[in-house]
Amino acid sequence: MIYLLRGARVLGGDPRDVLLRDGLVAEAGAPGEVDAPGATRVDADGLIALPGLVDLHTHLREPGREDAETVESGTAAAALGGFTAVHAMANTSPVADTAGVVEQVWRLGQAAGHCDVQPVGAVTAGLAGRQLAELGAMADSAARVRVFSDDGVCVSDAVLMRRALEYVKAFDGVVAQHAQEPRLTEGAQMNEGAVSGRLGLTGWPAVAEEAIIARDCLLAAHVGSRLHVCHVSTAGSVEIIRWAKSKGWNVTAEVTPHHLLLTDARAESSPAGPYNPIYKVNPPLRTDADVQALREALADGTIDCVATDHAPHPVEDKETEWPAAAMGMIGLETALSVVQEAMVETGLLDWAGVADRMSARPARIGRLSGHGRPLEAGAPANLTLVDPSARSAVDPHGFASKSRNTPYVGMTLPGRVVATFLRGRPTVFEGKLT
Amino acid sequence: MKRHLLSTADLSREDALLILDTAEQLAQVSGRSIKKLPTLRGRTVVNLFFEDSTRTRISFEAAAKRLSADVINFSAKGSSVSKGESLKDTALTLQAMGADAVVIRHGASGAPHRLAAWVDGSVVNAGDGTHEHPTQALLDAFTMRRRLGELDGRRVTIVGDVLHSRVARSNVHLLHTLGAEVTLVAPPTLLPVAMDDWPCEVSYDFDAVLPKTDVVMMLRVQHERMNASYFPSAREYSRRYGLDPERMGRMPDGAIVMHPGPMNRGMEIAAEVADGERSTIVEQVTNGVTVRMAVLYLLLSGSEPAIGGNQ
Predict the structure, then answer these.
(1) So where are chain B's domains?
(2) Whole-prediction pTM
(3) What order of strands is seen across the sheet that includes strand B215-218?
């Protein structure tokens, strides 16, 4: 199949015609200059073309919690959100801590075909934090794992973290740390601050994140390895990462869409009433000052990328009292809209910046050579077309995800993914799954 | 229109005074040999208790019965709740049975707020986690008013485990609304980290505050807190923050001593103080029934509830 995208604004620039053929970007040129007999013409007038988005942090829940999400449903949600690759987190059941499990997830992704599924391997066996999982076997498997994470649990043991950082150097891996000092966060329910004090909910202090990030940066520097910091949520964490980068250390970081837009005030006051656990997430929503610091850090590159931490949960795990509820929120189908709202419409990032933070850099961190490439002749035809002028209220009933736990329900957000192409084949066309 | 009593922060000064004044009238009933009014005949009040609290439950039960309401006690133990039924399903069950009011005690902060979204009847918070206990604060205010007169300008010192205390939170809001000046006293470990917007003063020094107080309210401090290093030992806590006869001697004449119970005698309060003339602890229990009658009366009698939060 050959597609000619007519008048697409590549990275928000002037309109261009882009020809997709044989899975590659065959040609890109001024409108009317690209000739393509037999091509399906796509009117992309007013649409922005971005390289296909890459998510470093997705919970697809399969195997084990197919009631919340499957590889099929989660990757369909990803494609609708403009993603062409997602990293599937390891905290499944069984845990993705062996070559067998990561290959299974990888194959399920191939079979679903909505986007590439790159499994993340667990750092420690069973996420138990006692001994290393077989990192090399996962790296050498068909899934070619390069990102390792115990996400959901912090690798809090300093020796184990050091060994993991050292060990993955052998295959250019990276350890993605869920930074949460466990003793400081026992029973923690939400950000520790004015709101938690008023609501009487156990606090999750910023220092519990920052202390681990500081330690891990020092460890990564000491052993000369790559560290990636998951879902940075505090202004203090930003300062530490900025300092580590200024030293030239190989530290990268991600921020979630929800931490760019929402604060802990939602726990106390929201359209859904107080104590609604739709806003319960780990790390927790923080304060306005943190949100501002995170936006600025993403804009100046201190934080490398946006990652969704898409965390599906069934209704019964959220329709409960706050402390009993599961932590997490879904995000694949709203990520780009939230980034447009928080970063583009505020003037902090242009569309080239969005492409860098949501495609190029996460692909580089995950070592996905086929993704995040400039939309130039010869590159794999992984891209998404976005209508930036659309605005709509978020309605989870239209989501492809099996779960509905979005904190944005009813909010009006900008932007709409019109089409997504995976190696030249549309996975989403005219806003719908193909 | 307001339908529930979830937090004292939802009460206006008019609401709060209406409850206290109504309780004052109802107190006369408690003094009679036949302590019953026909006001809530035919209405159903469910006591939904997920935590053991015999004191609070029987207080609400007595209050509802004195108003002639039908009372159903629903204890989490031995019920479908212990078999894993969700709060929402429990709420729907009560709803289907036609509960006009649900009095809920729950270990999770905010559980009454969630319940209020799932039932049509009124919800009364009888203590939620480490959040609030509104009727305790109302009975405390009622007790203070009976002993000291109006609360405007009265100085109230609340001492103890503020961090985990639902009594402290409810009292701070209500007493502020009623014009009292509140000071919280605790070791720094037992205070929330960010309290700048609380309408009260905070001190670590009990002895400095004592001479300038009209009411000292001692909070229960659980021995287990010591194991989590909130303080070194029960003895040290008692020395620094306990109310013993010597400390009580430094209180102004006429100042009173309160405790929401149950007490740890010898820990936060000495037996001589608890049993002394300044202590209102037994009165608080009596007043609890009266104030809860007033709350149920105002929420349930007539077609439009007169107090509480409209959520």
Answers:
(1) 8-133+285-300, 134-281
(2) 0.95
(3) B201-203, B181-185, B155-159, B215-218, B256-258
